[in-house]
Task: structure prediction
Amino acid sequence: MFRRLILSFGLLGLILTGFSNTSFAADEQNVAVRLLPEKTSVKDGETVTVGIQQKIRPGWHTYWANPGDSGAIIRVKWSGAKNIEATPIQWPIPKKLPMGPLMNFGYEDEVTLLQNLTIPQAGREQTITADIELLVCDEICIPENHQASFIINGNEEPVPAAVELARTKLPIDMGWQTTMAETDGNLVVTIATDTPNAFNKLKSIELYPEEWGLIANPEKASAEKDEGHLIIKQKRGERDLSDAPISNLVVVYEDAQGARKAVRVSGVTGDAIPVEKASMVQETGGFVKAILFALLGGIVLNLMPCVFPVLSMKALSLVKLKDKELAKARMNGIAYTVGILACFTVIAGILLLLKAGGAQVGWGFQLQHPAIILFLAYLFFTLGLNLIGFFDFNFRFVNAGQSLTQKTGMTGSFFTGVLATLVATPCTAPFMGVAMGYALTQPAYISLLIFLALGFGLALPYLALTFSPALRHVLPKPGAWMETFKQFLAFPMFASACWLLWVLSQQISHMGQLFALLGMLAIALGVWLLRKQPARKEGRLIVLVLAFLTFGFVFSTFLTVQQDEAKTVDQIALEAEDNWEGFTRAKLDDYLKGNDPIFVNMTAAWCITCKVNEKVALAIDSTRNLFEQKNVRYLKGDWTNQNPEITNFLEEYGRSGVPIYVYYGPRMESGARPEPVVLPQILTPGIVEDTINNPTGEQDQ
Amino acid sequence: MIKNFFLGALAVLALSASPVLAAAPEIGKPAPDFTATDSNGKEVKLSDFKGKIVVLEWNNPECPYVKKHYDSGNMQKLQASETAKGVEWLSINSSADGKQGHLTNETANKYVADEKASPSAYLLDAKGEIGKAYDAKTTPHMFVIDKDGTLAYEGAIDDNDSANKEDAATAKNYVVAAVDALAAGKAVATSKTKAYGCGVKY
Result:
């Protein structure tokens, strides 16, 4: 039944691809062979590339250089001119052909093998003939003999285009240093690749050794990347690595567009450098880089509008300190750092747990939940009220935030750290994209270290202030300006709250938004109530009850912010009115089949970098005109809410968060598209223009 | 994505439809024991042949590579010459019911008679149990088992994997070489080759 399914599928494919122009009569052979000479005018000693084209009866297959568990390799004998020298056959990318418990490697429908013939005495009209023995099988196997020929220096037309097309189907030869080793019953192939990003779809990777017996053919390969190394494992075959000769290996993978590609590495021997050592060295390189990027990203976070006010207040508290209180200041700095690191550990821990559980999450995932956005909006609003002087935190039950930050105690500093982390989450700094993307592909302990480096970067400026009197003396002298400055800082806070409400509006219904605004009103009312201290006991009780009810309402608003289903995946498509369309994988695949260039922009309402890039470089007239002029299909994906399709796309490019900008250049004359270009995370109109005008440029990482 | 899902589903189907192959027997290790019924209904047990060299020949009468060796008379010649040396020669047919080359007792006996073949026994293994125990992949896949029951050779019948019957006479025969080495108490020079031919029709 399985067999029949494949057969009917194969037939369907043939009808769809229009291959049916070769029809196979029942009494005919199962393969039709034709020779495709690249040139037919040949001088003595010249070399001609010849394609050996096999059109194979639907449902049947022929074999690759290593046919797998059964089958046979094609044999080609050349004659017609004296002393023809033929190079080994160049084999197009094979595929797996399972048959019961056995696995074969070969071709279906149509394949063109290539061979180079050197003809020492060519200089006259003569017929070059190939006597071909091949095995063709479906369930059963039939050996076939074929004879095919072409005429040189006569009136036969060459078919260079057909040969060129066949060349595009060969695996690309790479000089990558590759080793084979055996570990735990697996053949482990370690390839030092210089384009690790080509192998982002690790699950699509297949391993084809040209020598028999190195792998258990029916087993699946598993692949992993290790900064510059592609490591492929497959259960070993019946042959000991020690007596297996040198082998060439073909590695098949799916590229970002889902096209089946392959590379070939030659002369791989079994006497390998121990894999563990080789990978350890590489690992440290990528690891150190990621840690540095994370640290840098953390430092930059301090300048983000949401973090800056909190940090300024904290820094200003140092102004009042005298030098002899230095020890205390240091302890504060450490407590602050610990607070940040603790908070990062918790967030990273949740992220890793979700990931381990198979959820499609990336950095910024916290913000895909409206309750968290609402919480942050309330937090910014409350902080703003406090900064502007509407109230001081001196109520016992308000146990987080500024009240604690204003205490000089260590708990205060610890919670400032927590607060700084919370307010920092919406602002993904540019350096973080790469580091976070790397972090999430690594084992948990490495991911955690990278997150902690990010946290440490965030803590570093304040920590430095507390530890260095010289730095602290750079701060201005205390005075009345401090109160004014503090009040001013309320406005970035309110602005942040406004922005978060706008993000929320992308996620929840209109009623939900109303409740969020009423929630803010209630916070203001509650705070105002608590500030009243009536002289009489009954009065105080009434105030407390009213305040309790008010804050009760604030908490109840969290229940109203359920994700609006209509606003999840299709939201952007419905609102499309600009020069872009909503991203879907199907749409991208569709456009990739066409010839036009494609620009993909992955964004989210809560991603400031994304918004800035759009304002500065994308939603401007010159870029719009450029897109229109070059016929660019502009696809925009919105990751404001959870969207596994977008998460998958991000992972293909090694990212775990937005923004990402990918440009697929137009189809070239050869019929192929250039490698897609990943643009930097900070865009300028110039960068966009350069990318579109030079789509074959190096991939920018 | 849908395509991947579909392929994935097919892969699962394929896996569940086909029993996983047992670990392949290793050269120098005991050959897996088995009990089978031959074409005359007689029970044949491998371990009963201790003290004798045993040759296993995977057979599928309709496979072109099997025909190469029968039509050329090569296989019959080998069976005659080796059994004359005291070798136990077991032809094994693992074609499943309904698959190419599947035989019943009667058709198997007719085949052996028509081909003038002379194996010690023709074993019917339609369930593929012996085939999978030996990880037999092709017809003809050959195994040579030493007198003490250890596996001494597995792989192709000879060094020419063409389908032409003319090539059978000129090729270097690995099975003869292995049997002769064992009989002389020497090590088998080539103990493992790539078996060629049609896939076994499990």
Notes: The first strand of chain A starts at residue 31 and ends at 37. Chain A has 20 helices and 23 strands. Chain A has a mean pLDDT of 79. The interface with chain B takes residues 2, 5-6, 69-73, 75, 98-102, 104, 133, 135, 137, 139-143, 212-213, 218, 238-239, 585, 645 of chain A (CB under 8 Å).
